[in-house]
Structure formats: structure tokens, C-alpha cells
Amino acid sequence: MTAFSYSLMELAEKLELKYSGNGGLQITHVCGLDSLQPGGLAYLTSADGLASVPTPAGMSRPIGTTVDEINSSQVALLVSAEVEDPEHNLIYADDPLAAHVAATKLFHPESAKIPAGSGKSGIHSSAVVSKSTKIGRNVKIGPKVVIYDDVQIGKNSILHAGTVIMSKAVIGEDCIFYPNVVVQDRCEIGNRVILQSGAVIGSDGHGYFQREGVNRKIPQVGIVRLEDDVEIGACTTIDRARFRVTIIKQGSKLDNQVQIAHNVTLGEQALISAQTAVGGSVKAGHHLIMGGQSGIRDNVLLGNHVTAVARAVVTANTQDNEVLGGMPGRPVNQWRQLQSLINRLSELFERVRKLESRKDS
Question: In 10 A of CB 102, how many CB atoms?
């Protein structure tokens, strides 16, 4: 539940959408169709979902008992324009999911609060901020934040407790860095970037060479650049390039515990799931999708709209629109056929054993 409440009519007006039903119904929260409670707002991807929300007239109730089941008079639904049902409270949208997301933001606005101790400048008294730092308007800097020399921070950005920004890093506007984020020296962060707790941007790439059996470090002197609207999950690490730049392009979203190695370029609008690893110098086109615990070998070139399903490992260059599974990654239908055969190995071995015994007899 939230502290916000809107009537159905008010909510529809804020979303700039039309509605039908009880305009005075108080909507107190957003939720899924499977967790509706009184005052809830869910969304439907098809009209079939209306059947899961009974109308009062359609509810069965044995004589002498009460029913706690939610009914359509107590909740509202975001639906597409062609849905009509006078017994439900409906808000109409061309894209019900997008409208539900917009409603969620109304009920759960981003918190810009920094704990007590901040002065008029928005900088907490325990923060350590270099005098050479350039800070835009309305920036908020939380407790125990450390900002090194010659850092630039754009307006409206928020740095929560324990964040560390090292020398000459550039942070764009409207960014949110959650507690204990680290942005290392000279890295470049675009506008509206979200870094979840524990993310490390610009750690050294894994570069070594051996001489006489001893591992010797290769200096990593490049940077990381995150373009606008990128989000990086908790405890995800993005390594700086050896010489130039590791790039995560506009709109890409990386889950928790992802490893991006040095010299990588991820194209626009990538979706990378948890525990995924991308090897050094990989170059990926736009709209890459990677399932959980998947990986890409170093120096691989990927086309646009490539998908690696969960636990797939891409070991060779791809064309556009490929969907890969398994290790090594291969077309997903081929991989599924192979998995089916593997599951039948015991049966096939038994058939071969019987054939061999007949031959011997």
C-alpha cells in the first residue's frame, strides 16, 4: 500500500485516459491480477482476464455464509479500448501495460530524500567532496559519499550513502546512484542513468601476461562510458578498456551480478539477465537479449536482435536475429533437438545392447 489515493476519475485524468464505471471508487495501490485487493488497479493483456474478477451478481454464496472474495465493484482494471463491460471499473489505454507502469509511478514516486544532516546545498555533512568538483543544480549527496578531484555532476542527480566517485569522472543529469556505488576515474555516465547498490563502473579489466611463470599486470588505461537511460543492477561490474572505452549504449538494462569485461561494446536497448558474463572485446548490435547465467566468449561479434537463452554460451560470430541455446551456442531449435536426444540416451543404449546381444547369439 502507499500513502497516495486517487478516485477512478482522478486517476484516469492524471493518465489522460478515458474510464467507465464508478468514478468515485478510491484507488489506493497498483497490483497484479493475481493479487487484487480492495482499491487495487491491475491491467489486462486480453479481455479473457475479466472472468477472473467476478461481478457481485455473479458470485455464489451459500445461505448463511459470507464471502471475502474480491469483486469488480472494489477494484479497477486497465484494459484495451475494445473491452466493454458495464459491471467492471475500467480505464482504457492503447497499451495497458505502459499505462499501468505510468500509474505505478504516480503511486510510488522516486524518493529523492537524503537523511537529515544535509545543508541547503543538498550535501550531507558527512560527505567528502573535493573543492574542484562541479555540481549542478538540485544535486543531492548523501552520507559518507566521497567525491574526488575534478568530478562533474549534472543537475538533479542523487548520490545515496557511501557512493564513491573518483577523479575526473563525469556524471550526467537526473541520475540516481544507490548506496555503495563506485564510479572510478575518468568514466563517463550519461543522463538518467540508474546504478543500483554495489555496482562498480570502471574497475580494471582482467589483463595479465606471464613471464617465467609469473603473472604480470597489464595496465588498463581506458574508461567506461554509459550512455543515456542505462540501468545497471546491484553488484554488477563493468571493466574499463585497456586503451580506449568500454561502452554500454543508450537504453540498455543490466541485471544484478553481471560481468562486462574490458573493451566490450553493447548496442542500444540490450537486456542482460543476472549472472551473465560478457568476455573481453565483444561487440554486440542493438537489442541483444541474454538469459540468466548465459555468456559470450571474448572477441565475438554479434548482430542485431540476437538472443542467448538461459545458460547459453555464444562462442562464434552471429548474424542478425539469431536465437541461440546450449554450449557451444547453436540455433535454439537444433539445441532443443539435441537435448531431447540426450534425454533418450539410456533408452538408445539399451536398444543397442539388445541388438548386439542378438547378433552375438
Answer: 17
CATH topology for the 6-107 domain: 3.40.1390
Query: What do you get for the CA distance between the two ends of the chain, in Å?
Result: 76
pLDDT for the residue numbered 112: 59
User: Which tens digit of pLDDT belongs to each residue from 111-128?
Assistant: 656 766 666 679 999 999
CATH code assigned to 128-337: 2.160.10.10
Instruction: Find all residues with CB under 8 Å of 33, minimum gap 6, and list them.
Output: 42, 43, 44, 49, 52, 53
Check residue 57 and report its DSSP letter. Answer: G
- Does the active-site annotation cover 262? yes
Set 262, 286, 287, 305: catalytic member: 262
| DSSP states of 315-360 | -S---TT-EEETTTTEEHHHHHHHHHHHHTHHHHHHHHHHHHHHHH
CA atoms within 13 A on the CB side of 260: 38
pTM (two decimals): 0.86
Cβ-based neighbours of 351, under 8 Å, separated by 6 or more: none
Band of pLDDT at residue 54, cut at 50, 70 and 90: confident
Indicate the domain borders of the chain: 6-107, 128-337
Buried b (16+ CB within 10 A) or exposed e, 176-193: bbbbbbbbbbbbbbbbbb
Cα separation values, 86 from 63, 72, 76, Å: 27, 10, 12
What is the crossing angle of helices 345-360 and 332-343, to 10°?
50
Q: Which DSSP helix (H) or strand (E) runs through 105?
A: helix 96-107
> Which cell goes with 221?
588505461
Give just the sign of the alpha carbon dihedral 127, 132, 133, 137.
positive
The mean predicted confidence, pLDDT, of the chain is 91
Rounded Cα gap, residues 296 and 313, in angstroms: 6
Cell triple for 25:
471508487
What secondary structure does DSSP assign to 136-149, as a single string? -TT-EE-TT-EE-T
